Structure formats: structure tokens, C-alpha cells
Amino acid sequence: MIDWTDRHCRTFHRQFTRHALLYTEMVVADAAIHGNRDRILGFAEAEHPVALQLGGSDPAKLAAAARIGEAMGYQEINLNVGCPSDRVQSGTFGACLMQTPGVVAACVEAMKQVAAVPVTVKCRIGVDDQDTEVALDELAGSVFNAGANALWVHARKAWLKGLSPKENRDIPPLDYDRVYRLKRQNPSHFIGINGGVQTLDEAFEHLLHVDGVMLGRAIYHNPMLLLDVDARMYGDGAADSPSMDAIIDHMCAYADTHIARGGRLSHITRHMVGLFHGAPGARRWRQLLSTAANQTGATSTVIRQAYEVIQTAVTDEAA
Prior knowledge:
Elements: H1 7-14, E1 22-23, E2 27-28, H2 29-34, H3 37-41, E3 50-55, H4 59-72, E4 76-81, H5 86-89, H6 101-114, E5 119-127, H7 132-145, E6 150-158, H8 165-168, H9 176-185, E7 190-194, H10 200-206, E8 212-214, H11 217-221, H12 229-234, H13 244-260, H14 266-269, H15 282-290, H16 301-318
Parallel strand pairs: 1-3, 2-3, 3-4, 4-5, 5-6, 6-7, 7-8
């Protein structure tokens, strides 16, 4: 989710759920250590619970980055061993590390030595021509022996040669049963699943077999899926569910604060485009947030105008 789940996206998604764990976009260890920490790692208290996802293959650097992340208040440190992008491969981290489970284990062990918060790993079921039965077992055994608190498995192979990052999200077939088998073989370890999950009903089906479910692009493109998470997954009452009016009010106030600090409205609204997916007026909502929000001097008024379009469309349809 590089360039997607930034602090503005997480602030937006947090309005829908108090409990779901949110993840940062992947941050390279070197950037965490040497970069502008407020810009790269900063987050609002209201985003909690939130996990920092790191990329890298140098145990010492990852340990330093994990120490920094914990000190900044992140509640989990996650090592990405699943991203197949070219720029990630060129840095010898991401999905190519599936080929060197010993390196991943050394990284986990180094992070565990310095961090009291959970250290977790996100991986694929294998890469390229690997036998997924062997590759996933080897990686899981290595990271759990090193002390990893959880393993999140994207239930697809990653093809490092021949497929683009976008194609790697769709073309390799999903193999949920492989992840289920891994869980059966490791009943005492937390194993979560990721990849192609589109609805909460699907998530509940997976939870019959594994310990957790991670949703990424489905939530990004249709944030409304998050509205039922707290009630259905965490047992909150209907009275605890946020109203759409309250969500819009919060994001308008947040946007104006960001703009007053020198930011642009589009930094925020680009994450809100999919909010009314499939609803009356959704096309006009998308148009306004994709055009008017990009104009110089745009303020939260754009969000409110777009929301009025939705309210009017819903009223007209009901009539």
C-alpha cells in the first residue's frame, strides 16, 4: 500500500472503526532512520491502534527502525516480505526475501531484541517457481522460531520476473487453502490471511480457519465496508456506530487544519473518492473530489458541496 495508507488515509479510515488495526504504507528502514521522521513516520494519536510496516533486509537497520517506531508510539512493527515492486527488489527486500528465510529470521530476531511491542511479518505463499508447500513452511518456521508474534500471508505467489506489481495483485491465483493448512500445522501461532477479500462476509468465512483477516484495496476503494467492522467483529452496539454526518464534519475540520499548515485539500480527498461507492450521486462526488479539490485554494467547502450532492441524490431516489 505504498503511497496509499498515509496518515491522511488512516485518519479517514479511523472515523469508521475504533478497533481495527491500521497499517502504515511500507517505510524503508533507511528512511525511518535518516529521513524526516515527522513527515515519514508521524501520525496522530487518534489513529491508534496503528502498526508500522517496515521494509529492509539488514537486521541492524531494521532493529534501529523498530526502536524508533516503538518510541514514536506504534503498537506493532511489521516486516514486509510480500511487496513485489521493482524498486523494492532492487533494495533486496520485500517479496524476494521469501527466497532467504534465514535472513528474514535474523531481521525478526534483531527487532525482537529491541522492541517490546509485537513484531510481525507479512509475506506471500512463495515467489516465482518456488514450491509453496516448502517455501511457506520454511519461512513460517524460521520467523516463528525467531520470535515473530504473527504471520500475515497474502494467499498468492509473487512473480518477481514477468509481472508488474499491479499484475501481481490479480494474476497469480489465490490459494486460501494453503494458508489454512499452514494454520492447522501451527495451531499455537497467530496466522492471518490477506488477498482478494472483498466483503466482511468473506472475512468471517476466513476466520473459521485463521486468526485474522487483512483487507487492503477493498477498503480503500469502498471505505463503507468499515462501517460494520466494530459491530460485527468486535461486538459494539449500534449506538456506537459513527454517523456519516459526523464523519464528514470531522474530515472537513481535519482538512482545514491541514490546509492551514500549508497542505492541500487533495492530499486528503484523494483517499475519500471511493466513499459512496455504488450510491446515488457517487459519480458527481468522485468528480468534485477529483477536480475541484485539486484547485489552488480549495478548502473543505468542496467536501461539503460534494456531500450535499449525495444527500440530494439519496432524497430524490427515496421520493
